[in-house]
Amino acid sequence: MPKVSVIVPVYNVEKLLERCLNSVLNQSFQDFELLLIDDGSKDSSGQICDNYAKKDQRVRVWHIPNGGQSAARNLGIDNVYGTYIVFIDSDDFVELDYLEQLYQPMVEYEADVVSCRYIAYSEERDEEVKKIIRENQAKVYHFRNNQDVMQDFLEKEFKDDRNFPWESYANLYKTELLGEIRFEVGREFEDNFFNYQYFKKVQKAIATSYIGYYYYANPTSKTRITFYEKQFDLIQQERLIIEDVKIKYPEFIDLEANNLALKYCWLYGKIFGDIRFSNFSVSKKNIRIIQSLYKEDKKYFLKLDIGKKWGTFLKLASSFPYATGLSNRLYRLLKQK
Known about the structure:
Residues 5-147 form the Glycosyltransferase 2-like domain. This protein has helices at 17-25, 45-55, 69-78, 98-108, 126-135, 146-154, 175-178, 191-199, 222-225, 233-248, 253-273, 280-297, 308-319, 321-336; strands at residues 4-10, 32-39, 59-64, 84-87, 93-94, 113-121, 140-143, 171-174, 205-216.
């Protein structure tokens, strides 16, 4: 049986898929299987997966109707043979020693999870990214009990270099410890609660500042360029966490309240950035929704520590959303000129 199972959900990424798969199959650590879940791709992605399976016996492929990334990942989890699991998105890629850098400390220190750093990559940033990688000096951080693990995990929004990412990539998980934990199907930003559930089980963790994962910063991604209603899932996912933190980790409730507040800042910013004077009724609807959600959650925001900039923005956005939104939109338009 392979030591590591690599799960890659695939959907309409024919131009980027081979870069991803080559970075996995050419790893210095070779004792792994690669599970490719073709999530109903309409381009040649599915055929590319099949071609790789024909060439390499470590590759297994599923073709399923489009059900979203969570459903594809869950199918992968249900079919792994490996003792450990990593997730890689099909438009991303990894360093050739990525698995080795995660697996070695996992075994050496008998850890429950090993996390590394990731970096946003685009063709325009190629030289900048290479420079950062060259200058990076990898350090290893040990966490020896669940309280220390969870404190660091819940402080994630406030660190320039987070030890434990909320994303599911850049982590090596124990298959046995993962158990019945699965991604919530039909939601976006589902990684956050998935990781929270897993890290609650972690007693011993390793975090390394090694940068091994390249997140593709697609300039045309809808998540990056516009607001859409499913982004309200961000609040829903963070609410699942804060409700559980109240019970299991009450001493960390203020940390998680900070995380929730910053999610509101991000969403207000996305909504304001998408204001169109020709279609202001849509923005008004979204503002009403976020105002309603905020009113329900503001009871958590009595002791916020999110910095002066974001603290001021959140107060203005929640108190005077239309004035703040129009001012924000006008500022962005002027900045583009």
